Amino acid sequence: MRKRNRVLKAVTTMTMAMALIIVAACGNDSSSEPGNEGKASEPLQKVKIQLKWVPQAQFAGIFVAKEKGFYDQEGLDVEIVPGGPDVVIEQQVVNGAADIGVTSFDSLLVNRDNGLPLVSVAQILQKSSYRFVADKSSGIDSPEKMKGKKVGMWTGSQQFQVLAFMERNGLDPQKDVELVKQGFTMDQFFNKQLDVAISTIYNEYHVVLESGVKPEDLFVYDFEDAGVGMLEDTLVVKEDWLKNNRDTAVKAIRATMKGWNYAIANQDESVDIVMKAVTEGSTTKEHQSTMLMEMAKLVKPEGFTDAQVGSFVDDAVQRTVDISLKYGLIKAAPDLGKAIDKTILADAEKS
Question: How far apart are CA 168 and CA 267, in angstroms?
Answer without folding.
Answer: 37
